[in-house]
């Protein structure tokens, strides 16, 4: 019974640690809105109205599809303690595969085949784009945070060059690709206007969860993430692990770009960058790198982003206010983790130096009394 | 430095420090008097390190006081400790390898400008005091281990010290270097400094100490004062210390107590075998390794290991032992030479293939390499058999099979864990080592490479681990024992080879008294002789 009780407490603790930062961030965001002279309740009501009510929930779920795939991609790398921060470049390159080659491919072959070719192509482009940071990391131990970030900037530039150059739609003066016809886009889930990309994303999350928790590959990955030394000790080839995980991660994120273009946008404009990775990052950590746990959290953000865009405008706030909320979640997550970890270890919440300083006036008083 | 008229006394009263799950120091009281060597004796985990880190200002006690000459002293940072004249020589080198001796010594200078000239004078002064010759402009990485330690001592008493704490200073030294150290300690003491000498070897405590305090389980369980120690003969002192060190455990450890505590010179405990009649199990021929890391590689190593034999590899820590172990285990590639196992060339095989052939490796880095602390004990026990039946079928883990295996191993090796699902990292070092042994020695082990198998363990576990290895060899298993503890090598090995800078520099048959000295000579000749 004791063990059961403990497990229950641990599960509760994890839920609290995942949800509390979001709640705190929303409260503080509300205070900021108040300070800016708007009514926070109006804003949150707006998020609900424009993100959920009517058929708005469908728009939220359409946004959720690429977000969830990006989240799974990030989780693959993060579980191996590889910090793939090149998601923006990877996403845009994957999107360009769809928006750039799509118009030609759909002309040349059946829709289903063209779709598969585009998906595989985007996966491949993402995987290849990750080779530079991953090989540098595996071979020379170069910090992948820096290399993947730099490759991301290059990736964004390449995507823009392609859109303005070879893939540019010549019929419009705008720097954008040709629009893919509605008949060639991903099908809707019957009875809704949500494209099947959402189902792909959900299946991906479930499959990833299964691979991580039940298979030998998942365990090898976790060992590698926990300690590369231990991984070498049990005979895991760390060079391949770095390259494989990075390729999977980057490939999936690029795939999200292709899904987004074929599911929603149908074309791509130069200098467009939705920054999905930045937004999804805190939720990936709140989910403790579990793809299934990421589903509700990403869903929450999808509603917040969809409803929040209009709600922010109505409340007289800039759309960038959403990123403020994401930032606040990150800050509160860090604090919650710190406090939770101290509590788990049975330590005081305060750092030792601060504690002593705070306790000093009382101590001297007590000492005086004693003597 | 002036010699005070009345001796300085640093008194610790009721020092208590608890960490989650363990009380490291439980109301420890002791007096440290200048001009004396105060030996702090106790097995691993007895609370010695915690006590000195409190004295050095790196940890704060939960309760208790420290007073210097009766005046309460709040040592709440390492800087305060230095200001009080408390200097610590840590077990592992804290010198910056890329800096010269002088730069290392001046690391703690707080003035705006570096005063090199004054520093050189101070170094001369200290060199004379220690009876050592120290070249100020040599890189720390070019020093021999004994010299490094002299520099560490100089660094500790750089600012005119009151107390010098030496944390297990002999653990890395050859018998010859230990003698040098003893001389230096004696000179420092005669200058009027207090010295705290931490060790887990009884005979060092007896030969170097003026008084002895024994710690066990975080408590002060015995103190032998200066007068008492002077009045005892060797045997009496030994008995007094032993009974304090082991308490009730003395019955379970029995006659080995004295040996475990390092009271006497070590002797061989293992049965002699006739090597000529035993088949060669492992042979290395001209093996040189290459890895990505920066540690010392082995070069041109040739050795043979027979069935049922324990071959000891002696050497100062970091002289290629890790590379040798990894080259045999398959974790590091041999770019020259051949590794043969039971007559078969395994040079090109990886860890997993060698593991299946029966080549096993108990690493010295139990916490980060040998186990995955965040994973369960059960998973850690099967982690070398990932993907193999019966634990994995069609790529899927079979939790029942894993749990059954874990339960069996936990019972067999008496691993003390709340449950198989407990995270391995929360167990004690001894129990983690048992996980490693259980994993490596089961399921068809033929040859096991063990690197520093008893390092940092409590005495009861040390005893158990040695028994397990002796037992494994008696049943025909082969053991390649890499250790920096000469006593351990002498007790367990049939033969001892000496490694230095990645090369085998000598071989000693362990067949009588004087083995340790012979091994020490090879080590000294190879290492100190260079400089």
From TrEMBL, chain B:
Read off the CDD domains from this record: ABC_Carb_Monos_I (cd03216), ABC_Carb_Monos_II (cd03215)
Q: Which Pfam families match?
A: ABC_tran
The record's section on InterPro entries has:
AAA+_ATPase, ABC_carbohydrate_import_ATPase, ABC_transporter-like_ATP-bd, ABC_transporter-like_CS, P-loop_NTPase
Q: Where is the ABC transporter domain?
A: 10-242, 282-526
Task: Print the keywords alphabetically.
Answer: ATP-binding, Nucleotide-binding
Keyword Transmembrane helix found: no
Tell me the domain of life: Bacteria
Q: What is this protein called?
A: ABC transporter domain-containing protein
């Amino acid at each position: 019974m004791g063990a059961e009780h403990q497990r229950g407490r641990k599960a509760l603790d994890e839920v609290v640690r995942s949800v509390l930062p979001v709640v705190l961030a929303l409260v503080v965001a509300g205070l900021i809105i108040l300070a800016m002279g708007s009514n926070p309740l109006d804003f949150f009501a707006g998020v609900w109205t424009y993100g959920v009510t009517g058929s708005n929930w469908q728009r939220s779920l359409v946004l959720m599809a690429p977000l969830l795939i990006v989240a799974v991609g990030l989780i693959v790398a993060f579980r191996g303690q590889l910090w793939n921060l090149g998601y923006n470049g990877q996403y845009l390159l994957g999107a360009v595969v769809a928006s750039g080659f799509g118009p030609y491919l759909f002309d040349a072959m059946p829709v289903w085949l063209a779709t598969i070719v585009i998906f595989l192509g985007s996966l491949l482009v993402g995987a290849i784009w990750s080779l530079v940071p991953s090989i540098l990391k595996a071979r020379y131990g170069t910090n992948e945070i820096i290399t993947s970030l730099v490759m991301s900037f290059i990736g964004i530039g390449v995507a823009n060059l392609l859109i303005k150059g070879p893939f540019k739609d010549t019929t419009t003066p705008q720097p954008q690709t040709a629009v893919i016809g509605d008949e060639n886009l991903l099908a809707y889930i019957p009875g809704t206007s949500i494209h099947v990309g959402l189902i792909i994303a959900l299946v991906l999350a479930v499959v990833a969860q299964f691979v991580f928790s039940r298979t030998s590959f998942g365990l090898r990955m976790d060992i590698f993430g926990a300690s590369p030394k231990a991984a070498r000790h049990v005979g895991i080839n760390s060079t391949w692990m770095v390259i494989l995980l990075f390729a999977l991660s980057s490939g999936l994120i690029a795939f999200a770009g292709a899904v987004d273009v074929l599911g929603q946008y149908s074309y791509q404009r130069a200098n467009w960058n939705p920054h999905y990775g930045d937004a999804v990052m805190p939720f990936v950590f709140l989910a403790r790198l579990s793809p299934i746990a990421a589903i509700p959290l990403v869903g929450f953000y999808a509603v917040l982003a969809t409803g929040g865009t209009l709600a922010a405008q109505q409340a007289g706030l800039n759309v960038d206010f959403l990123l403020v909320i994401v930032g606040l979640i990150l800050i509160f997550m860090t604090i919650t983790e710190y406090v939770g970890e101290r509590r788990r270890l049975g330590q005081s919440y305060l750092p030792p130096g601060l504690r002593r300083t705070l306790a000093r006036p009382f101590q001297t008083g007590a000492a005086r009394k004693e003597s | 430095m002036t010699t005070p008229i009345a001796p300085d006394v640093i008194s610790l009263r009721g020092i208590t420090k608890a960490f989650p799950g363990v009380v490291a120091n439980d109301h420890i009281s002791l007096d440290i008097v200048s001009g004396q060597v105060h030996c702090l004796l106790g097995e691993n985990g007895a609370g010695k390190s915690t006590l000195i880190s409190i004295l050095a200002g790196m940890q704060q006690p939960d309760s208790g006081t420290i007073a210097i000459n009766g005046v309460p002293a709040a040592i709440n940072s390492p800087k305060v400790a230095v200001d009080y004249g408390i200097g610590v020589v840590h077990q592992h080198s804290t010198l910056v390898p890329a800096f010269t001796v002088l730069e290392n010594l001046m690391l703690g200078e707080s003035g705006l400008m570096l005063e090199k000239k004054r520093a050189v004078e101070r170094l001369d002064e200290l060199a004379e005091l220690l009876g050592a010759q120290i070249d100020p402009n040599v890189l720390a990485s070019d020093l021999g281990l004994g010299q490094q330690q002299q520099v560490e001592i100089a660094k500790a008493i750089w600012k005119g010290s009151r107390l010098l704490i030496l944390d297990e200073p002999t653990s890395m030294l050859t018998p010859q270097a230990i003698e040098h150290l003893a001389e230096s300690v004696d000179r420092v003491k005669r200058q009027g400094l207090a010295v705290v000498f931490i060790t887990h070897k009884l005979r060092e405590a007896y030969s170097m100490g003026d008084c002895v305090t024994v710690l066990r389980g975080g408590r002060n369980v015995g103190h032998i004062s200066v007068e008492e120690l002077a009045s005892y003969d060797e045997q009496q002192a030994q008995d007094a210390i032993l009974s304090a060190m082991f308490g009730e455990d003395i019955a379970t450890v029995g006659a080995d107590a004295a040996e475990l505590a390092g009271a006497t010179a070590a002797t061989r405990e293992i049965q002699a075998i006739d090597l000529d009649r035993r088949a060669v199990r492992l042979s290395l021929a001209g093996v040189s390794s290459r890895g990505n890391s920066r540690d010392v590689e082995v070069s041109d190593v040739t050795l043979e290991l027979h069935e049922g034999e324990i071959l000891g590899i002696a050497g100062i820590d970091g002289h290629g032992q890790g590379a040798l172990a990894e080259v045999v285990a398959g974790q590091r590639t041999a770019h020259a030479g051949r590794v043969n196992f039971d007559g078969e060339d395994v040079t090109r095989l990886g860890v997993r293939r060698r593991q299946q052939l029966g080549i096993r490796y108990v690493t010295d880095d139990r916490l980060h390499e040998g186990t995955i602390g965040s994973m369960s004990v059960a998973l850690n026990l099967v982690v070398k058999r990932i993907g193999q039946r019966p634990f994995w079928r069609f790529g899927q883990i079979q939790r029942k099979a894993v749990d059954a295996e874990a339960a069996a191993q936990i019972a067999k090796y008496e691993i003390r864990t709340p449950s198989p699902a407990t995270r391995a990292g929360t167990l004690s070092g001894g129990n983690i080592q048992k996980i490693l042994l259980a994993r490596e020695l089961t399921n068809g082990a033929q040859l096991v490479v063990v690197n520093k198998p008893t390092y940092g363990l409590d005495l009861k576990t040390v005893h158990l681990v040695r028994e397990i290895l002796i037992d494994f060899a008696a049943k025909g298993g082969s053991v390649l024992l890499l250790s920096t503890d000469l006593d351990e090598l002498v007790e367990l090995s049939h033969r001892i080879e000496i490694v230095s800078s990645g090369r085998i520099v000598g071989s000693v048959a362990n067949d009588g008294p004087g083995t340790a000295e012979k091994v020490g000579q090879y080590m000294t000749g190879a290492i100190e002789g260079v400089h």
